[in-house]
């Protein structure tokens, strides 16, 4: 496409009505994975769609939207360290995290609208996600230690959660990459047989990142928050163990044929 064509396309994006952009996004929405939890699937994707339409009309690039998501998210994480637990702090942290999460959903949608999907953009998105899932529980542990609001032994919960979150994120990304190498014999998460259901979406709610964000509202009542957070951490750990076993079985069942041989270590 020529520079004049790009300029015309950009000009057209600014003239397109907001509601028309939203409708285009709705029609082009990627299918949700069968295991997609309720908040992420039914709430966050919708909010992200509205933000993506705004960003598209504003001429923002997908990487700029990723950067906006990172700013909201890491400001929230910083508040966990610098402010003592309170209702005000908890609400602020939850709102900031949820806005960051919505922009995280929006960047990919902007990319599809602009037709600018790239390995660099996907890399940036995953790097931000990998950083936040590890730093959030560690920031919580540091903040609780600084303000001495929980027994020291309990600090092992968010520290362990940081490890579980990092391993789960890596496992999900690596499993999808390896599934692609099987040339379709092991379906991707969005290609699993069967349709997404309300029952499944509700069953995995404890592992929903949106629910984790909402849990910080309870920081004004630390004993209640500690119970809820520990249950979320335990549920996520159980999910990781079950998912890891399932992923291993899927990949172990794949036998490459001579026509689809791939280079070892080529991801």
What does this structure look like?
With 267 residues, the protein is mainly alpha-helical. Helices cover 72% and strands 0% of the residues. It has a single domain (14-254), classed as Four Helix Bundle (Hemerythrin (Met), subunit A) (Up-down Bundle), CATH 1.20.120. The protein is built from ten helices and no strands. The two termini are 30 Å apart.
Features:
267 residues; Four Helix Bundle (Hemerythrin (Met), subunit A); 72% helix; disordered C terminus; mainly alpha; 10 helices
CATH class annotation: Mainly Alpha
Overall tally of structural domains: 1
Q: Name the helicity range.
A: over 70%
According to DSSP, the number of beta strands is 0
Report the sheet-strand fraction: under 5%
H/E order of the elements? HHHHHHHHHH
Tally of individual helices:
10
Task: Quote the CATH topology.
Answer: Four Helix Bundle (Hemerythrin (Met), subunit A)
| Overall SS class | mainly alpha
CATH architecture: Up-down Bundle
CATH homologous superfamily caption: CDP-alcohol phosphotransferase transmembrane (TM) domain
What is the gyration radius calculated from CA atoms? 20 Å
User: How widely separated are the two ends?
Assistant: 30 Å
Ranges where pLDDT stays below 50 over 5 or more residues in a row are 1-11, 258-265
Quick one: overall form?
globular
Major sheet characteristics? none
Give average pLDDT, whole number: 84
What is the quaternary state of this protein?
single chain
């Amino acid at each position: 496409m020529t520079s004049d064509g790009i300029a015309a396309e950009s000009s057209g994006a600014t003239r397109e009505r907001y509601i028309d952009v939203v409708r285009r996004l709705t029609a082009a929405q990627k299918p949700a994975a069968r295991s997609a939890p309720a908040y992420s699937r039914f709430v966050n994707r919708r909010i992200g769609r509205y933000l993506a339409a705004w960003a598209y009309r504003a001429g923002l690039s997908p990487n700029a939207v990723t950067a906006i998501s990172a700013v909201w998210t890491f400001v929230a994480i910083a508040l966990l360290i610098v402010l003592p637990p309170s209702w005000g702090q908890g609400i602020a942290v939850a709102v900031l995290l949820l806005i960051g999460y919505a922009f995280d959903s929006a960047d990919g949608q902007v990319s599809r609208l602009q037709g600018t999907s790239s390995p660099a953009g996907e890399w940036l998105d995953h790097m931000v996600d990998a950083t936040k899932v590890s730093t959030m529980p560690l920031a919580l542990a540091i903040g609780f230690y600084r303000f001495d609001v929980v027994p020291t032994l309990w600090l092992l919960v968010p520290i362990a959660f940081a490890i579980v979150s990092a391993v789960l994120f890596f496992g999900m990304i690596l499993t999808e990459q390896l599934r692609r190498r099987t040339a379709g014999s092991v379906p991707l998460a969005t290609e699993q047989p069967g349709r997404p259901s309300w029952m499944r979406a509700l069953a995995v709610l404890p592992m929903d990142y949106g629910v984790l964000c909402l849990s910080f509202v309870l920081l004004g009542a630390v004993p209640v928050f500690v119970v809820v957070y520990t249950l979320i951490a335990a549920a996520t750990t159980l999910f990781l163990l079950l998912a890891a076993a399932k992923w291993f079985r899927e990949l172990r069942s794949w036998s490459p044929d001579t026509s689809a041989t791939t280079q070892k270590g080529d991801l």
